[in-house]
Structure formats: C-alpha cells, structure tokens
Amino acid sequence: MMIFPIWVLAQVNIIPRPVSIEQVDGHFRLTRETRIVASALLRKDAELLNFYLKNIYGFTLEIAAPGMGSKKINIISLLPALATDSSESYHLGVNSGSISIRGQEAGVFYGIQTLLQLLPPEKTRFPVDVPCVNIDDHPRFAYRGMHLDVSRHFFPVDYIKRYIDYIALHKMNRFHWHLTDDQGWRIEIKKYPKLTSIGSCRNGTIIGRYPGTGNDGIHYCGYYTQEQIKEVVRYATQRYITVIPEIEMPGHSLAAIVAYPEFSTTPEIPKQVGETWGTYDKLNNVFNPTEHTFSFLEDVLTEVMQLFPSKYIHIGGDECSKKWWKESAFCQALMKKEGLKNEEELQSYFIHRIEKFLNSKGRLMMGWDEILEGGLAPNATVMSWRGEEGGIAAAKQDHDVVMTPGGWCYFDHAQSRNEDSVTIGSYLPVEKVYSYEPVPAALDETQARHVLGAQGNVWTEYIANTRKVEYMIFPRMTALSEVLWSPKSSRDWDDFEKRLQVQFKRYDLWKSNYSRAYFELRDSIAPAKNNDGLRWYLSTRLKNTPINYRTVPMEAPSQGWMAFPPFELVYSGPVMLQSNSLALAGIEQGSSITRFFSFNKLTGKKIRLLTPPASGYQGNGGAFGLVNGLSAGDKGINSTEWLGWSGKDLNATIDLGNPQDIHSVTVSTLSQEGSWIYLPASVEVAVSADGIEWKTLPATTDKQGATQVKITLAFDTQHVQYVRVVAKNYGMIPDGKAGAGNPAWLFVDELAAK
After folding, report:
1. What's the whole-model pTM score?
2. pLDDT band at residue 5 under the 50/70/90 scheme
3. Any idea which residues carry the catalytic annotation?
4. If you write DSSP's letter for every residue of 566-587 in order, what string do you get?
C-alpha cells in the first residue's frame, strides 16, 4: 500500500478538501452491473446519487436493499452511521471490489458529492475506474451558505433548483432567498394579493450602470406562487439545504408600500415600484411603525413561516432611511410615548417587535448588521456585511453571527480588472475569496463560537440572466466552499489552485457558464528601483503561452492609437515606462490589455497612507495605485483603480525623491451620491523639505467634471521633496439622501502634481 499526499494525486482532485484522505493502489471498476445497496432510511440518498449520475453522466444504477440477493462485490453501499458520527460527517472507502459511504443521512449525501468528484471530470463511457481511497470528513462550520437576490431580477423555479444543486455539489447547506425589495415583491401572500398583482411589477429598468443612461420602459414582472415555493423548499430539503427567506423591513419596502400605501408614513404621495438601483432619497421606501403595519407584517410572516420550515427568518433591516420617520408626526409621537431617544432606537423598537412575534412562533430572527443600531434584539442572529465590525460587535454581545463581508463575500463584485460587463464595482478575484478567514482575530475562543459560518451573496442589479449568475459565482463559490468546509490548517492556495484546474472541467461537464478571469492576461505596476518611472508586469496562468506587447509614447489617448500595430515584442520581464505611453499586451486567442499611462511629478514615487482603504476597495496595488499613472477613465465606478474609504479621510504622503518645484496638486475623485460616494468636504496640501517640518499651503481650488471630478489646488511655486495631501471625508450622509445616517464613501483613483 502506498499513501500519497493529496496535492500530487493526478486522479483525486476534491473540492472542498476532505479532513483526511488516503489513496491506495488500485481502482474500483464502475460498470452497468454495479448496484447501489441502501436501506430504506438511506434510499433517498441512493436516488439522489442516481439523480446526479443521470444529469451529469447520463446513466443510472440499480438500487437494491441489503440482503436482496446483492453480491458483496461491484456494489456501492450506503451504510448507517456509527455512534460517533455527527450529522454531516461521512466515511468513504473505495477498494477494488466495492465502494462504501457511511454516515447519517446528510453525511452520506456529502459522501456522494465526494464520490462524484472521483469520477472523470468529462463525459465518459462505461466502465469507469474510481481510484481507491479512504476518506474521513466533516465540515468546519455549521452554516455554509449562498444567497440569491430575485427582486432586482427574477429567475424561474427550474433555475432556482439548479442553483440549489450547485449549493449541494459544493457541500453547502443554506440557501438565503432574497424575495422582496424596492424593485419587486416575489412571493405570493394570499391575504394581500396586491403584493404580487402590483408589487411584483415595475414599469421599466434603468439602462446600464447607475444612474443609467435611460429607462428601457419594459414592464418587468415575476413572482413565485405558494405552490412553487413549497416545491423549491421540498427540493432543497431533499438535498439537506435549508432555505432561509428574506422579507425586507423596515426599509427596502417600496414594492410593498406601492401595493399598500397605507403602511407608509406618506400614503398621500404617489409611488411606483423601483426602476433604479440603490436606496432612495426621494421615494419613501420605509414602513410606518403603526399597529396596522405590524398587523400586516405579522400576517405576511405567518404565511411565510407556513411555507418555510427554517428556524431562521431573515428580515433585512439594512439601509433604512430615518428621514421619513423624522418627518412623521406619528413616529415622533411614538418615540416620545416609548421613551426612544432617536430614530435609531425607533428602528430597534421596530426590530424588537418583529423578533418577539417570530420567537412566539418558535422561529429566530436574522438580519443585516444594521439591526445592531439602537440596541440588538435579544435573540437575533446578525449577518455582517459592512465589513466584519458588525459581526465582531454581535459576537462580543453573545449573539450568533454569519459573516458575509463585502470585501470577500459579495459575488456581484468584478472578478476581472478587465471586466467587459457591468458590475456593481470593486474587485474580488477568486484568490481573495479563498483567503477569507470567517473567524475574526478580534474574537476570543468563547466569542468565536458564535461565528456560525459565512455566506456568498449574489445581488442582481446587474445580473439579468442565469448565465451571468453562473459567470459571477464560478469559481468564487468553489473557493468559498473550501473556506467553510475544510480545516483552517489545511487551506493552501497552491494546492487549491491545482485542484481548481479540474473543477473548471467540471463546470463544463455541468454545462455551466463561468468566469475565465483566472486565465486572463494580468498586469501590475510597481515603482522603478530608483523611483524614476514605472515597471509594468505581465503574467498569465496559461502555460507555454507567450505574451506579446507594444508601448507607444504619446501625449494623450486621443491621438489615434488604433493606427499603430498592436504588438511588436515578446514579454520577458517588466517593461520600463518613464513618460506618457500607450501600452498594449495580449495572448494569442486570449485576453488583451490596453493601458494609458499618464505621468506627472508624483507618478511612481514612494507613497504612504495614514489610513488604509477599506477591504475590497484597495484599487490596483493599494496606496501605490494613487501614483501608478492610471485613472478610472471611461469605466467610472466600474474601474478597479479606485481606492475607497468609508467615513475616513485620505491622508497621503509622497516622497518626490529629491527637491523639486511644484505649483499644483490634483485629486481625482468620484461623486455618485446614490451609491453613497461623496466628494471630499475639503482638500488641503502641505509640503516639507525634510519630512519633519510641514507647511500647509494656501491655495485656490478648481473642480472639473460632474461625476469623475478632478479637484486641483493651485499655489505659489514650492521647492520641496515631500507632499502631503489630505482629503476630508464628507462625513455622515444627510437625511433625504440614499444611505442617510451612514458614513459617506470617499473614492480617489489618482494624485497628480505639476
């Protein structure tokens, strides 16, 4: 017998990586005569094995009960659990005569998913050789989830089932179904039929990226009947997946309020189901916390609980604009009556009311981390999306937490720096997803037990069809599955990367769409060794594939560069750049890159930030991205060049390398208030000859641009070596604006000096 480490096995490429795996000599030959032997208790698992064999490979096997004349060879035995087995653990053994999977029902199912990965990752004919292995396995986290927003864009039941199968194939066990929002109400509630007859339809959708170039004017509708909901829940339950419904409140409720305006603080003002994205500053999308409203919501949740057996009911709770409560005489009177100090405590009052009702029905409430505002409801579970801070705070208060921070778990973010389709922004490659650690270092051992697991989120503002859903989740969902299942100590990117090559073949086998960003041509920029220019690095993961490139000196990108032949050199090392240049690179029958490098006195210099940008908004190279000669250009917010700070200032110090004359500094920033991104409240420049003594400069300020705004400070010529640029964050978003009460974002993509 020979034991091999998993990373050298050509045959065994299992994701998520098992806790323990041993490969031995030999194989089991799977033929048309192979039988599945299972007791009545495990027959459902046997049928599910056949379901996947049929759908993936096009064949099924006979199922027999134990002792029904079954031979002890050429069988796949599904065996009951040992007394020590947990509900999701399994033992998989393959020898030359048989395959055995032992565990409780869910454990056997996960063993089946592993067995499927021992089969060839392409269509195959009988017989099939299965490598001999011994595997003992169990998950690290109890909550291993995927989310799907069907409010912004609606997907049919057949696809929801396919999405659930993707969850199952990755040994994940929670499906968070985002069913209601401003742009559509997608679940039938029999007591309130207008929720679907009116609230499930919008009269059009913006074209392109927010704020859009217009409205398509297409009547967009869709909802799930209660029978369809039951069908989906049954389908998920058979695959050991819990469906967690989300019914948004008190904000993000425009579709419901359009259907029943009496539940708004402004019922007299006409409203329509949302046709754009984001939160609203002019349309009231917040429930009025009256007894009438609470009765309505309790009725809705009662029907929801009849459809979903999940112990958790998700109530949203995020991005609730307090403006409407501040302007409501009823709300102000209610606050006075209940002794509530502010609207944050009114939100807490609202959430407490809903939680008390859910608890009375034997259910637990789950909500986004904004439910912490004003005081957390007693039994609530927090889903932390605005970074990890909310999850840390909740765990320290002895509340359970599901981690889903945008910087690692938002699969609506771009996964390519050269994304050719519209996304919501930011950059989240598969490597970063794999690097995520769900248990924050700030928690001690006791507090860490409150971290149930994590979840990948798929918000569909810019995901209008099922092929793009798959493009956005794969391969990132695969990476997250290993983060959540496998032991932390066994996580290794190099190892995972080798197994991922086979997983790409499985996507093809499943006839699934997926992103090829992993294989695309990539580039990075670094300072020259003497800080006198830039080094442009190119790379590809496609082996033995030459990279061709060309650089063209030019003053501006409008000089008709298309007249130049695209490539003339084969890349062999970093390309040195010292002046304005058009740079082009490509691989044969693959991706290409076009960059325009614009130089100024700060380009390529040493830069230090007092406060790092937020996770997920670190641009193209962190701090150096502010002086790398690249701007967002016509990609706007969709560019990966932006660095972003939430509620914090930009404070950058640049070392010019030697004393130089400068007379102006320009900060390239972004104004997109619907996305919570504001121009800085102020910008100031300080200079120093030695980096110790600083002088803040009086300057005149000029702003150019409407969305991508260049803020230039001009001053008397200074002969200095060090420049400090401070852009003050706008602060808290005011009432009446999208995201009111939350800290504004500051986005900057380049700093320049003349």
Report:
1. 0.91
2. very low
3. 181, 252, 319
4. S--EE--SPEEE-SSEEEEEEE
